[in-house]
Fold each of these.
Amino acid sequence: MSTVCAVSTPLAEGGIAVIRISGEGALEAARRLFKPFGGKSVADMPGYSCAYGKVIDPATGEAVDDAMLTVFRAPHSYTGEDTAEISCHGGIYITKRILRLCLGAGCRQADRGEFTKRAFINGKLSLTQAESVMDMISARGELTLRSARLTREGRLFKRIDGVKQQLVALLAELAAWVDYPEEDLPAVEDTAIQATLSGACAELSRLIADYDCGMVLRSGIDTVIAGKPNVGKSTLMNMLLGYERSIVTSEAGTTRDVIEETARLGELELKLSDTAGIRETSNTIEQLGVSLAKKRLDECALIIAVFDTSAPLDEEDSELLEYIRALDKRLIIVLNKSDLGARLTRQDFPGERVVELSAKQGQGLEELTAAVSELFGADSYDPDTTIFANERQKRCAEEALERLQAALSAAMLGETLDAVTVMIDSAAEKLMELTGERAAEAVVDQVFERFCVGK
């Protein structure tokens, strides 16, 4: 493969920047550009060693910057190839100039995720481990980071590979019995076939079941704060954010547009939308705001419905509650303004998850955090759980599970072993596509398209 280079740190002013070079010609390119102090030679540098020196423009002999060069020799590098990393001063101009020198020294610009892709191709990572790299970079909390780290260490691959190995062993027994009848091999017992298939189905089912909770932790919850005007929706939004984002006044109908921000509640991230108060109105602009609010309610995953606990339920409240309940979304009722005295209580909302708080006083945030965590299963989430990184992995597992369930059903109905074998083999193929052992080139390319350049 060709020798590639890229800036592996954000292209912005900072203390240092790192330009990574990888491939058969990486050390030769580094030798042409980098002159260690003390008369050392890049060609003689062992792997896992650093040198301090100058980056030189080969065309002019001009010193461009003081820098550190780190050398990794194949196969003991991230990519499995010879790799050199130049750590220079973190100015944008300096970084770009050194990158251009690398390109002039025979390298080409690396594509998105190409360093990690090369690690996969060279057997340093499975496809699931490679995909976990971006999950580690984008992790927004301890639980998601821990899960991504476990996957990076190979936990998910081992679980999937364990299922696959059981299927491969069963396929080998079935093939030997069918293909070599003259050897008088013992027939594979129906109970053994069914036990293996049942165990494989159970393991895949557990992995798939963990996905939804894991994705909530990883991607956040699309949340709408809804209520009639002047119940404290914007004040609640500001409390969740920890700063004043929404305008708060005593005048009803202040919020006309949908205000969107992101807030953290414990391990969960809420993608918040503060919407216009939902009510019948003759004001044209407010009508547009109400329409936008209803559209966001249709799209969201969680509704936080806010009611003024200092006033009894009126017709507008009842109509709003009826409208929200008909959407059949996850719902938390917030009784706001608890500091003003209660004319509404939890008993007014039978069967609903209710939280009492005072957004203005900043009281009740812990109860709301606990309610959201419980509603989405984050409170019981096992931090040692490995979860699928994306829909591709989940889809492969689901298709494998469907084929194994069909094979199990066929075995229990006494269908021919040939038919059962075909279904098992098809399921094993899907698991190997998941881990990348037999993934098509197009699938591999698609995986690395979402990576950043330089990783």
Amino acid sequence: MHKIFYLILGAVLLFSACIQDADEDNVPVRYTVLVRDGRTGEAVSGASVELTGEDTVSRTLSTNNNGKVVFPAIKSYVNQVIVSKSGYVPTDTVDVISSVDSTTSVLLRTLNLVLLPKGYSSSDTGKIYSYTVTILDKNTMSGISGASVSVTSGSTEFSAVKTSSSGRAVLDSLPSKQNLFSISASGYIPIDTLVIADTTSNDHYILQTLKVLLSPAVSK
């Protein structure tokens, strides 16, 4: 049984931060994370920032007085980022800035994240998120039936659901945009590919479709 974990922070982070282009998959990435208060705009010091690469090793740092942490460069194709601090909740705001340091062959990636004080009323809160997750066999592109898909949405952990005969599972009414997905399928391993598509939304409801490719553990 193999598992892969994703932190879903929004389409911008998925496309720009979590997934590197094919020609970048061997380039080390150095993450700088900046955290600010969504009410005052000020830096949030002492926030916990956890970065987990595809090696499943978690690296946790605390933001300094400028609300900043810088992680050592890692070679990772899919990355999970969790930011938290007591008295705060995550919002939907994620800005990503990428550049290449040609002198050291390192991809520099900066994430600007916002936390809101608990109880603070904002248009960024009160939204509901629904994800349709489709698990596909890399070789055949057919759906994988019976794969397990679970999610932790914000601080709430939801029970796992199984994919249908078409490889599809629906996780509905999630309270946060900061979602950590756990996906596993017997006889398969992840190949670190995540695609987001068919995203629609209104003022209160966000619909998103995720497609994950898995590779057979033994060549068929």
Amino acid sequence: MIVVKLGGAEGLDHDAIADDVAAHWAEGVRLVLVHGGGAAATRLGEALGVPPRFVTSPSGHTSRYTDRATLEAFTMAVAGGVNKAWVERLQSRGVPALGLSGLDGRLIEARHKRSVRSVERGKTVVLRDDHTGAVERVDAGLLRLLLGAGFLPVIAPLAASHEGAAVNVDGDRAASAIAVALAADALVLLSNVPGLLRDFPDEASLVPRVAIADVDDALAWAQGRMRKKLEGAAAAVAGGVARAVLADGRCPAPLRRALAGHGTVVA
């Protein structure tokens, strides 16, 4: 069992990824895909007059502030457009893909944060009406039911709050939680860089391996979204997944290359 997280930024080779997933599926490998969609959400939000607002937490993490209007645009773009595009791409290759979000059937349950802290002009401010969540539970039984029926689940990063409301969740942490819940053999996170770079954006500075005990040190040079990916990879390994790989989604056979150790292996 392999859980694959597909980054939502520009630059990934979607056809190469779909070809590789189809090849693994034909070989009898069972997979779950989790995808992002930040770039698509930004484009649709701007077209709808809801441009994105990114906030930086006191700890240095950057995230999308999600008020209700932004959540609705995100849902349309990601759980609608991006999700169904991946389903179509995979089904055209003979893969029985089934698209859903973590909200459906309460597949993913998250604690509703309701407010976020943001550092603006050197001051920390509190932003209310936030619709993001921290992943707390994955319904592994529902995923096993779908897999047992012969489907490949393709999951958009939405979740249900304890009260049943839709919340936006971090896709890397969602994929990590799913990998742990399914006791996956590996978690592969594909993005538009070859892995963790010690000197971003110099791709020659790729870090080939990070021991779980050294993750805190590695976070010191992780830039932007790579911090979230590294944290998600570490959480998966800490939760019992044998290895997680931060890998390049721009090349031919990206999944096969990642499983062969190309990228940054966290174990």
